[in-house]
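Researcher: Let's do a round of design. I'm pasting the structure tokens now; please hold your answer until I've finished.
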């Protein structure tokens, strides 16, 4: 059964909350227990101190036979009994000594023993004969019993206090262990949830985000399949379907842009075709006029020139057909200088007289390229440069092979109006254009960027307003010197 990502997240957080709540209750219980224990210790300590005071007055009584001492001793025992009863009623289930009622009975027995002692009139004076007689006759038999009861009470309550203190220390230690356990449990749970989030949410989202970023830049590569068994599967399937549709439409846009470029090139191509056709026409007329004459060598030269002009016109038409033809991405070993030369021939009629075109490309650069697509890149960049130099200037096309690197770079520089910083970040966006309406679709540089990425290359631009612009394109060159 497939569990949705929503249910997984809810289950993870429910588990986290449940364990955290359990840990909180355990620590809260320990806190409450320590609070109760401290109150018990305080009250038992009070009881113990009152018993000690009662015993002190008890000893004074047996020494001095003062009824006031006896009265004080009885009062302290009563207070102790009342406080102990309070401990039993309020904190009974939290005490270390469970049989507190038995202790209370012992305390009451001690109280009764004290209350059973009576002092005859005239026995309050330490040195009176009646006090001495009383000491010998009335108190001798009860003194030992009262002292034994008091001593047992003192020992019992001191033992109970020590036991309570030991329990508090133990609870504090246990609370420390609980805190360590809580910290470890929260750490393990948090780590587990983080791992779950990373593999089940973060990774799929990163894959989708990367793919969408590539789509935005014009590279329509599919998203790798995600076997998470949840909503991301259907999302990736939908996105891949969308990418396939975008790929199809991107091909249509590239083709449309080619046709638009052909429309721009028409006047130049007409001029280029007009020259060889004029030469052919002139040569044929001369041959016809001198058909009866015997100057065969001159006629042969005219016919050879005619054939060259026919080949030239055929090459121009062939280049146009190849450029306009729709085809799949098909990189082949291509001599780059020759490709640039063919491209310049196609746009030669579009070159204004006030623009100086310079080409600096070594003949040794050969790479695996889709010639049609790279030709599209060259035309787009050259036309952009020409349109930026309405008042004339210089256009330079250069290339170089990076030493020790399997790539080569070419640059197309113009001395035109340049690009400001705000516009620079948008020039590769689809449909973004600074040209007036009807003079550009805003797809040229976007398609150029996509073609370069399709070749696994990169394109960058440097420009300063009023000083010109340089586009730099770097493409892989996996052909070794041996294959060349």
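Researcher: That's everything. Go ahead.
Model: Designed sequence:
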């Amino acid at each position: 059964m497939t569990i949705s990502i929503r249910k997984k997240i809810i289950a993870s957080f429910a588990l986290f909350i449940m364990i955290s709540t359990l840990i909180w209750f355990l620590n809260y219980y320990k806190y409450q227990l320590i609070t109760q224990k401290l109150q018990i210790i305080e009250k038992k300590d009070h009881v113990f101190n009152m018993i000690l005071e009662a015993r002190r007055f008890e000893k004074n009584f047996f020494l001095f036979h003062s009824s006031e001492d006896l009265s004080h001793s009885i009062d302290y025992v009563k207070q102790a009994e009342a406080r102990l009863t309070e401990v039993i009623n309020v904190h009974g289930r939290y005490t270390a000594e469970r049989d507190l009622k038995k202790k209370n009975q012992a305390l009451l027995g001690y109280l009764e023993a004290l209350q059973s002692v009576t002092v005859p009139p005239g026995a309050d004076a330490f040195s009176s004969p009646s006090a001495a007689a009383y000491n010998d006759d009335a108190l001798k038999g009860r003194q030992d019993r009262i002292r034994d009861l008091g001593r047992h009470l003192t020992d019992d309550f001191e033992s109970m206090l020590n036991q309570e203190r030991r329990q508090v220390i133990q609870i504090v230690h246990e609370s420390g262990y609980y805190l360590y356990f809580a910290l470890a449990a929260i750490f393990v749970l948090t780590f587990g949830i983080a791992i779950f989030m990373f593999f089940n949410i973060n990774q799929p989202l990163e894959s989708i985000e990367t793919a969408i970023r590539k789509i935005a830049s014009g590279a329509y590569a599919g998203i790798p399949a995600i076997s998470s068994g949840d909503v991301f599967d259907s999302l990736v399937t939908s996105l891949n379907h969308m990418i396939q549709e975008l790929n199809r439409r991107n091909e249509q846009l590239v083709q449309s842009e080619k046709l638009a470029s052909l429309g721009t090139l028409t006047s130049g191509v007409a001029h280029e075709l007009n020259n060889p056709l004029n030469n052919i026409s002139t040569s044929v007329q001369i041959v016809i006029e001198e058909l009866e004459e015997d100057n065969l060598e001159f006629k042969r030269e005219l016919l050879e020139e005619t054939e060259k002009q026919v080949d030239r016109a055929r090459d121009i038409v062939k280049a146009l057909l190849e450029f306009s033809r729709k085809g799949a991405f098909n990189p082949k070993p291509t001599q780059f200088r020759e490709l640039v030369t063919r491209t310049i021939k196609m746009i030669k009629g579009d070159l204004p007289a006030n623009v100086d075109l310079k080409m600096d490309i070594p003949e040794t650069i050969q790479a695996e390229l889709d010639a049609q697509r790279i030709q599209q890149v060259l035309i787009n960049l050259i036309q952009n440069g020409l349109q930026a130099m309405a008042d004339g200037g210089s256009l330079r096309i250069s290339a170089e092979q990076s030493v020790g690197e399997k790539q080569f770079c070419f640059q197309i520089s113009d001395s035109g109006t340049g690009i400001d910083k705000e516009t620079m970040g948008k020039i590769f966006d689809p449909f973004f254009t600074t040209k007036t309406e009807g003079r550009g679709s805003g797809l040229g540089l976007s398609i150029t960027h996509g073609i370069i990425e399709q070749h696994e290359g990169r394109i960058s631009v440097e420009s300063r307003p009023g000083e010109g612009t340089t586009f730099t394109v770097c493409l892989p060159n996996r052909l070794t010197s041996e294959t060349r």
